[in-house]
Amino acid sequence: MEWLTDFFQDLRYTVRTLRTAPTFTAAAILTLALAIGANSAIFSVVNTVLLRPAPYPHADRLVVLGYTFDGRWVPRMSPSKFNLWKERTRAFDEIAAARFGSADLSDGAEAEQIPAGHVSAGFFSLLGASMVKGRTFTAAEDSPGGDPVAVLSYRFWQRHLGGDGHAVGTVLMIDRTRVVVVGILDSSFDTTIFGVSPDVWMPVRLDRQRASHPPSLWAAGRLRPGVSLTAANADARVVGDVFRRAFPEAAGPQDTFAVAPLLDVIVHDVRGSLFAFMGAVAVVLVIACTNVANLMLARASRRQREIAVRMAIGASRGRIARWLLTESLVLSTAGGALGLALAGMSIRTLLPLNPTEIPRIGPHGAGVGLDWRVLAFTFLVSVLTGLLFGAWPARRASRTELSTFTPGYRHSSSGLRLRSARALLLTSELALSLMLLVAAALLMRTFIALRVVDRGFESHDVLTMRMPLSASRFATTAAVDRLVREGSARVEALPGIAAAGAAVSLPLESDWLTSFQIVGRPLLTASPTLVRERIVSPGYFGVFGIQPVAGRAFSDDDHEGTLPVALVNQTMARRFWPKGDHFKDQLVLFPGFVPADDPPRLIVGVVSDVRDGAPLNQAVQPTVYVPMAQVPARLLHAEPMAWVIRLRPGTAAAVPTISRELRISSGGVAPTNSRSMDAITAASTAGTSFAMLLMATFGGASVLLAAIGVFGVMAYSVQQRSREFGIRLALGAQPKNVRHLVLADGMRIAMCGTFIGLAGAFGLSQLLKGFLFGVTEHDPAVLVATPLVLVSVALTAMWVPARRASRVDPATALRSE
After folding, report:
1. 415 in a structural domain
2. What is the pLDDT of residue 171?
């Protein structure tokens, strides 16, 4: 146990000596705290999103059911696919389906729109839901024609029913149907992992006798014990083959079924971003380590006589190295403890600013906490950091010769090696800083490009509202057409309104895809070709200022009973009709994907290109526009209908007045979720903006640390070479010559770090391709400007030490030696 006694002895001595050097101690601990805190903060998000198990029984065996289409896996199910899978599969204990949306809750004269989930009977048992009161659905209630029942969320029970103990058995009017409450879910049941939190749950009632192919369902299953993911996918392919033979018109020859782990599906869209941020903060940590290592080298060089004394009285080189490593570990542990506190504060500050929906973190990041994984990570990082920045200085210091204690000994005997070591560390620090600075600059260029890009539509002065069409009176296309016509007319009659229209999906908010076939032409590929689909009213184009470039736009004459028509955008016209002969062709939508219940449509016009996909940095996609009055009713109910209203310039949005007119037109259904189109546009670039903010913060921190490092190295170099500078000045050198000499030494280090950093930036920028827009990953402006910025910062940090060197008093410098 001698080593333990030595450790505690070194620990006590380290604490005493660090207290006598408060400037060094504070600088080292604060530098490490900022870097370790940033790593702990990002890791706590990674832990919550990627590492923490899903809050359901046997979460490791939960998988999402999906299908492959056009070479891509789609985590959705159609009713027909789900029914067949449930009948044929042998790999699962249980599978369940869900459809999330909204419902109208009638309470008196007006209806309130609430989030709703329609689920199969096994949904709650699959996810381990417990009940406060009552029960969940039975299989009979989940069958077509079953009794209308509902299960309420705990939140809805408390908010709307006041936690009434007799709520089970009460009747609610939901979607104009009397529904009996059969159960209250426990507050612990959490579905926010899927990005939804319904207030009311009702049976989905899938009809096994009816073929229905739109991919409208989310479906999941629990693998049987001992069934691997590979075996489950083999079973899925067998069921996929059965489906393709039963419904050849609803699947391509290469399409099949497949499953994927639940957690992988949920976090797929954010996994790359989180790993990129982890890489960025790791670079900041390495930069901080190089800074503290430089401080430790400087401190060790000033303590050479102390080290020599210890060696003279019997301390071994290993004992000296352990003592100095103890000092490094004390600093890193203190920095880790402070960093953990900073991580907690930064999480509560940054995550509410994040406008994107990161799964599993909860509202404003409430689900992110400092659990044992985060504590273990911070401790491990602190220890590794202490070893990383302390090992080299400790090794060099332990090699101190006993001649250091000899009277008249000068530090110059090892000064060259020490300066080389510190220059190497500084070069690495500058290279890493430049890499982060390049990443931040590329994202900044992207942010600017997204702000000025021509979207192809006018978003200013446009108001949007949503209206659910779940009531039975909107069950037909003609009924929805009447609603749109009357609602648009009433709104346009209001003062300050320039135009009004409607659509099934909004630009930048919903992204509908459809397959199509040109009548008389063979299919372009074995699997259907996908294009974007927009189902709109005639007023849609006027609201957004989308102009026809050939032919005509839609009119009120395009309704049921008239010739089915369609419009295409310029990109689609150029791709599929390069000779400009599109007006002679007809389109059929959904061939080979779902039964063709949509008639052939004559192309009557070409409209200008619009960047209406989310995110905004996507390239313009081929798009087909279809009149709302000419589509099957099932497409009009896929999501709440969107009203779009253009206000005259300078007119304030009179939302209550507009809502009143639309409510009258709909017979009492109030529009909700009023948002400006500018807000939707801003949300479409919010993810890139937040990534830019984080990377700019990390890049700025790295440059600041690099500047501190340059200043420290140059200041220490000037102090060590003061005798040399005094001699030069005594022999007639001008102060400017000494100043230029110091600046030249520093610039050699800065230029070397810059060239190495540029090489690293080429590789790092490849990881940012998915975030970039309007700029290439090797943008010349960025690759020229960022090195200039870094070199300028380094030059500024060198100026004070260089100026101090030029003012050395020769007599004082020589006398001190």
Report:
1. yes
2. 92
| Residue located via tokens 């929906």 | 357
Q: What is the mean pLDDT of residues 66-72?
A: 79
Q: Which residues, at least 6 apart from 228, have a Cβ–Cβ distance to it below 8 Å?
A: none
Residue 201 lies in a domain: yes
> Quick one: 561 exposed, middle or buried, by C-beta within 10 A (0-12, 13-18, 19+)?
exposed
Which pLDDT value is given to residue 201? 95
Q: How far apart are CA 160 and CA 2, in angstroms?
A: 69
Say whether both 395 and 292 belong to one domain. yes
The residue that leads in pLDDT, 305 or 735, is 735
**Bond preceding residue 495 cis, omega within 30 of 0:** no
Query: Domain range holding 617?
Result: 469-668
Lowest mean pLDDT among 226-240, 470-484, 520-534, 797-811: 520-534
Query: Would the pTM of this model clear 0.70, i.e. be above it?
Result: yes
- The answer to the question of residue 107 being in a domain is yes
Q: Are residues 423 and 473 in the same domain?
A: no
Cβ distance 345 to 315 under 8 Å?
no
Quick one: angle between helices 317-350 and 2-19, nearest 10? 60
Interval 420-438 mean pLDDT: 84
What distance in Å separates the CA atoms of residue 452 and residue 462, rounded to the nearest whole number? 18
Q: What is the mean pLDDT of the chain?
A: 83
Tell me: do 175 and 230 sit in the same domain.
yes
Judge whether 181 and 150 are in contact, CB under 8 Å: yes
3-state secondary structure of 529: strand
- Estimate the share of the chain in helix, then strand, then coil, as percent rounded to the nearest 5: 55, 15, 30
- Distance between CA 538 and CA 242 in Å, rounded? 42
Q: Is residue 531 part of a domain?
A: yes
Residues 572 and 656 in one domain: yes
Are 485 and 587 within one domain? Answer: yes
CB 146 within 8 A of CB 203: yes
Looking at the fold, whether 21 and 163 belong to one and the same domain comes out as no
Q: Which of 253, 276, 309 is the last residue of a domain?
A: 253
Asked whether the predicted pLDDT for residue 734 surpasses 80, the reply is yes
Residue 73: the pLDDT is 86
Residues 594 and 474 in one domain: yes
**DSSP at 547:** P
Q: Distances in Å between the alpha carbon of 143 and those of 121, 123, 205?
A: 9, 14, 5
Q: Given a cut of 90, is residue 97 above it in pLDDT?
A: yes
Q: How far apart are the first and last CA of the chain?
A: 45
Q: Please state the domain count of the chain.
A: 4
Q: Which two tokens stand for residue 128?
A: 């381990």
Q: Are residues 796 and 781 both part of a single domain?
A: yes
**Domain termination residue (choose one: 668, 700, 721):** 668
- Quote the distance between the C-alpha of residue 3 and its chain's center: 48
Query: Looking at 135-139, 202-206, 413-417, 488-492, which range is the least confident one?
Result: 413-417
**What own/partner pairs with CB < 8 Å and gap ≥ 24 does 302-305 have?**
303/397, 304/397, 304/400, 304/404, 304/411, 304/414, 305/404, 305/405
The pLDDT-based confidence of 625 (bands split at 50, 70, 90) is very high
Q: Which of 153-157, 781-785, 813-817 has the lowest mean pLDDT?
A: 813-817
